[in-house]
Every structure is written in structure tokens, then in C-alpha cells.
Amino acid sequence: MIPVKNNYQFEDMLDKHQLKKTAPRLRVLSMMYSKNTATSQPDLENVMHDIDRVTLYRILNVFEEKGIIHKVFDLDGTANYAVCHSDCEANHHHDEHVHFNCTVCKNVYCLNELSLPSITLPAGFKPESFTLYASGLCPKCDKKNSVK
Amino acid sequence: MIPVKNNYQFEDMLDKHQLKKTAPRLRVLSMMYSKNTATSQPDLENVMHDIDRVTLYRILNVFEEKGIIHKVFDLDGTANYAVCHSDCEANHHHDEHVHFNCTVCKNVYCLNELSLPSITLPAGFKPESFTLYASGLCPKCDKKNSVK
DNA sequence: ATATAAATGCAACAATATTTCATTTAGAAT
DNA sequence: ATTCTAAATGAAATATTGTTGCATTTATAT
Ligand SMILES: [Mn+2]
Ligand SMILES: [Mn+2]
Ligand SMILES: [Zn+2]
Ligand SMILES: [Zn+2]
């Protein structure tokens, strides 16, 4: 489902976006591609103690600008980032999919495979993009729950 | 459309939720009911200079807890609050409608009249609530745009 | 090997969220 | 009407998060 990438491919990605191939960037990419849930800046900080939080902040910003990752706010309003699977371009994202926020583990899942139902807005509103948010129990937490 | 309320009705609302009828609370209620867009804490601060921002912070929190208002994050991740029209209960909201965030004026509109299309999630996900976010041009900004 | 622009780390600063506590006040009891 | 009490407010303090400036380091083009 999610295309697993190796280090060479991450280097290629940075190349394509005219970003220098630095250790912090490669580590962030590899972490984000290894999970099937979105990653918050605190998540990164907790793992990469040796990288400055400002550097992580800037990496997330530039990756989002370039269309490598997109930002999703969870139920508490904290920003989470997930890799784009929608051929997003610099400053122009197309990540119009469903986001699922688990109320137990707080993880944010991008449900890329689901397409959004079309909807008609009241007269006068000119929509440019849509996102559907769902919250509830994710598969893992639902299983743990029913076992008890 | 939006039921306009007077001060007696705001006092009743506070009564019903076992909240004391204080001046700051009544003013916040009256401001939020007078607009058809959501209100951020900075919005309130800009108008009610004499009320401490911690008080506003606490009023918004308790109103949300009681089911009087609900929280919506806009495109920048700042929290906006709008009055509930879905008979929400304490700690249990039912505000499953479309939210529209204008990219120009940044206003957040609750489109209460629209019902959400039903959607089936991948196996294992147990959704409890849905929200659809749309962003683009609101009626006002669209008009201004086409006049120029 | 050298030069240069980009990226990093650190410190400083700004904005926001949250806690603590002394004082005030709404509403209940007398 | 007066007194009492829990709730609410305001002010200050602290915590967390977002952002900028600048000196130093590093990737990469020459
Ligand atoms: Mn996504
Ligand atoms: Mn709403
Ligand atoms: Zn979960
Ligand atoms: Zn607008």
C-alpha cells in the first residue's frame, strides 16, 4: 500500500526539490515514510534528541512548501504531518482525502484510498478544496478494546 | 436562519447550564450569537479590552464543555468557536456539519443546514463523528473579487 | 582544493496556553 | 436586608510553542 522507500530514494526526492541531502532531512523522511500514521514535531523531537527543534521546525516547513508532506491538525489542534501521495507541487497541495483521528491513541491516519463524496455548498460559496475528518476508534484500539 | 437571542435568553442559557450570570459571559454569548461566523479568542480580546484574556480563555473552555459552543480549527490551526445548533450536551457534541474557511477573509462559517454525505471507511475503523472542511472563497469575498 | 549558497545550531524573542492565588461577586440561606 | 459560600474573575507567574537573527558548518558546484 504505502510504497516503502530506501535511503537512495530519499536522496533522490531531496534532489528533485533542490534541497541539499543532509542527515537531519534524510532521518525525518525515513521516519515519516516508515509509519502509516502522521507525525507531529514533538514525535520527531522525542526520537531525534540530537537535532535542534528549530531545524526540525524548518525541515517540516520546507517539506510542506515543496509538496513532500502535508499538514493535518488533530482533535487537539496540534499539527501532524504526513507524506503526500497525491503528486503535490510546491505551494499547491491536492491532498483531498479522509483523515481519521483515533480518540484513544490520538494517531492520525491518511485514508488516501478513499475518495471524497461530492457535495454542493449553499449559493455563493466557491470551494477550492475539501477534507473530511473522521474520529473514533482506529483498528488497533478497537481490537484492544473488544479483547478486554 | 440563525435564531437571534436577547439578553434574557442568554441568562436562561447560563441558568440551564448552572453557570452564574456574569457580565463577561453574557457579553461573549451576545457577541457570538450576533455573528454568522466563528469567533477566535483574539477576536474577543480585540473587542473586550476590559476583560482579562484568561477570563475569556476560561469562558470559552466552559462553554465548550457545556455544549454551548464548539471548536473549529481554521487553516492556520487557530481555534475558532461557534454556537452549537445541534442540541449538544455537556462533553458530548453532535456538530457534524460542513465548515467553510474563506482563504481571503479567513472567516469560518458553519454550514449547519447541509447534511454530510455518508461514507464507508476501510475495515476496522469505527468512526464516531465526522466533519467536512471546505476552503475557498466565501460569498462576500467572491463578490468583491468579481467586481474588480 | 576552493568558493559559495544553503543548512544547521544556538540564543533570543514572541505568542499562546495553562496554573496559581488573592480578591470580588452571584446566588443561596438566614 | 444581611450574611455566607462557592464560583468566577483578574493579575502575575510559569509552561509551551512558534518564529527570527546570526555565527558556524556543510553540501555541492567550480
Ligand atoms: Mn493526509
Ligand atoms: Mn460548526
Ligand atoms: Zn487508536
Ligand atoms: Zn471571505
Report on the architecture of this protein:
- 2 copies of one chain form a homodimer.
- With 148 residues, chain A is α+β, with helices and mostly antiparallel strands.
- Chain A is built from 5 helices and 6 strands, in the order H-H-E-H-H-E-E-E-E-E-H.
- Chain A has helices at 7-16, 23-34, 41-47, 53-66, 139-147, and strands at residues 39-40, 69-73, 79-83, 98-102, 108-111, 126-137.
- In chain A, the strands form 2 sheets. In chain A, strands 1-3-2 form a 3-stranded antiparallel sheet. A 3-stranded mixed sheet of chain A has the order 5-4-6.
- In chain A, strand 4 and strand 5 form a beta hairpin.
- The longest helix of chain A has 14 residues, at 53-66.
- At the A-B interface, strand 6 and helix 5 of A face strand 6 and helix 5 of B.
- Strand 6 of chain A pairs antiparallel with strand 6 of chain B.
- The site of one manganese (II) ion has 7 residues of chain A, from strand 2.
- One manganese (II) ion (MN) binds next to strand 2 of chain B.
- Chain A binds a DNA duplex (30 and 30 nucleotides) through residues 19-22, 24-25, 41, 51-55, 57-59, 78.
